Amino acid sequence: MNLANLGKAGLLVAQNRLATAGHNINNAATAGYNRQTVLSQTAGATPTSGGWIGRGVQAVSVQRSYDNFLYNQLTSSITRGAALKTYGDQVSQINNLVADRTVGISPNIQKFFDGLDAVATSPADVAARQELLGRANSLSSQIRDANAFLDSQRQNVNTQIETTVTQVNSYLDRIQDLNRQITTAKATNPGQPPNDLLDQRDQLAADLGQLVDIKVYEQDDRFNITIGNGQTVLGGDSVYYLQVKPSAADPSRMAVNYTVTDASGNPHPVEMKDSLITGGKLGGLLTFRSDVLDSTQNELGRLALGISMSVNAQHTQGYDPSGAQGTDFFTVSTPKIIMNGGNAASTNPTAGITDVSKLTNQDYRLEFDGTNYSVTRLPDGTSMGSIAGAGTLTVDGVQFDTTTIAGAAAGDSWLIQPTRDAAAGMDVAITDPAKIAAAGSYDDDNDPATPEVPAGSANGDNALKLAALRSEKVLGNGTMGLNEAYSQLVNNVAVKTQSNTTAQKAQESLIQQNYSAQQAVSGVNMDEEYINLQQYQEQYRAAARLIDTASTLFDTLLALRS
Q1: What is the mean pLDDT of residues 456-477?
Q2: Are 16 and 22 in contact, with CB atoms under 8 Å apart?
Q3: In DSSP terms, which residues pair with 365 in a beta bridge?
Q4: What is the pLDDT of residue 2?
Q5: Contact in structure between 59 and 13 (CB atoms under 8 Å)
Q6: 33 in helix, strand or coil?
Q7: Residue ranges covered by each domain of the chain
Q8: Interatomic CA distance for residues 525 and 338, integer angstroms
Q9: Nearest-angstrom CA–CA distance, 340 and 274
Q10: Cα torsion at 419, 424, 430, 436 (round to 10°)?
């Protein structure tokens, strides 16, 4: 091995090191980039009588500074952080809505009962009656508006779910493309890792984790990816796309479907349970919908029912100035019944509210096993009893009647939402102030079946009883008044908002810690790269001097012969 070859070997390795250091510097701010280092080793030695004479240096490979444990730790914390942020963005909007104590529902409840007090005090005052109707309309309008906002947010969640799933599928395509590129690169240059392609694939997987929690398994230089309870979305050379479809149990809810293939190789969508999808933006959206949006809208509906049914029950006991018995003061929606899309039955059961005080903020699933109907409370999954064939069952103040069902088959189910649409249907049924039944009755013949009310009576006994509902425990099995029920709704949302805020701050701190640990191994240190450049430059110059020295020696030998 002559000096020229020694110089050439050193020159090439120094050149590789300079190029790699420059690559590091240029990509210091590139997301997902892992610092690269040239691995070199001695080129061996040649035996001579004077001993083994070295043949210089050779580059073996370019290695990226990568720690799989630190990478997984970072991406896992980012996935969790994305879910908390998405949840927080959504729940804060509801918190702002329900916590408004100046123009919100709570002040309107107070004003409505203040109006009843005014009518009780001056039952013949037309202005007081007109004011009461105005306040009643304001209250019902405020409750409907709040419900409309929740409906709008539900639609927004549906839209975001569709958009997020489209993004997930796009990332799966891009990761699959990189799988192919990496396989080709390794076949083209065996034994040498295509570092930049590996970095790009890792970064895409990390970005995908911000959309949904994934599990990555590497096999034969390919990423295989699953979500949920092990549902494959990327396996081998195939992408199994996610789809968004209306839920069979509730078409108003967009559900995520994964793809399975039958024996003939044809793809079919299968609906996933929301609870199986965690982490990332998609997990945050689904958790918010089930944890906050559903329960808040149900609680708002329960409040609307509590106000409407309790006021109606008392108002029909009174009489207007003409002596006519009172009618319903408010209208309100009946329980919502949704037939599962896969049912054989052609008709629905019926459901009615028998005791407003026992209503919960949950929904119910009625299922038929071929013989009996069973009722399960949702989302907690508590079994609430069964009906042997056609019959009735009363659960939490709601009566379920299966006698109206026709053609049911085993496996049929229905979703019953007693309070979900109640707020949307709340309105004032009375338009004429003279129809307000403020007067009470009296019994002058000791016959309770024939109460007497003087025509044109101006007493406010019944209005007084209506006003007393302000403090009556009409909800929560007799434990909550109307304002207390709304305060509980506000408090539940506030607690969830604060809990998420606290968790989000802690998660942000954890992400920063994990990022720092990962960057300590994989990140580019500019100061270090500057020093390396100087060192590699000196190596390059030294190797060049070897070549120059070899040339000088050769010239000397030629001069001896002349």
Answers
A1: 89
A2: no
A3: 376, 415
A4: 76
A5: yes
A6: coil
A7: 3-65+523-561, 159-285, 334-420
A8: 60
A9: 17
A10: 50
